[in-house]
Amino acid sequence: MSRIGKLAIKVPDKVKIAIDGDTVRVEGPKGKTQRILKGVEVELADKVVTVKRPDDSRQARSLHGLSRTLIANMVKGVSVGFERKLEVFGVGFRAEVKGRDVNFTIGFSHPVPFALPDGVTAEWKELKAGDKQGEIYIRGVDNDQLGRTASEIRALRPPEPYKGKGIKYAEEHVRRKEGKTGAA
User: Fold this and answer.
1) What is the pTM for the complete model shown?
2) Structural domains in the chain plus CATH codes
3) Which is it for strands 112-115 and 120-129: parallel, antiparallel or unpaired?
4) Given CA atoms 145, 149, 155, 159 in this order, what sign does their dihedral have?
5) How far is Cα 131 from Cα 94, in angstroms, rounded to an integer?
6) Could you tell me which residues are beta bridge partners of residue 39?
7) pLDDT tens-place string over residues 102-123
8) Which of 28, 29, 67, 104 is the most exposed place for a label (fewest CB within 10 A)?
């Protein structure tokens, strides 16, 4: 039995869950989300969700813990929400949030527009402390979509190893290189 898959998921009071065959719908104060889960049985009883596998096949065992974690993330997303923080380093590097678009000024001859997907919001915070120009906070209900969006933003200008200029995750550590040394 999967150690993660056998854990029950407690549903907060403000969250509503509807199970319709393979589809699990979760609705809460932050928004709503749904996911199709095949190969497992999802049961709701007294504000507690349990995930059971139909047999001990390799496929069912692999989906058991994954499905439980996906449902737990859905519940957490609609009740609390998820957030990723990206740091922008470099002289003159900044971002500007306008509705569903974020315009980045990241060292190119033109601003780089980035369209946020539905369900994801962004907030820019100006810092001007040392080389760090600011931070961009990305918030959303779906953890998977939020991670994908953060990686796409980071890919616009990944941090380079010499001066550290670019966009990086807040928890990421960039290995710095020494650079050229002059001949004596």
Assistant:
1) 0.86
2) 9-79 (3.90.930.12), 82-169 (3.90.930.12)
3) unpaired
4) negative
5) 12
6) none
7) 999 999 999 999 999 999 999 9
8) 29
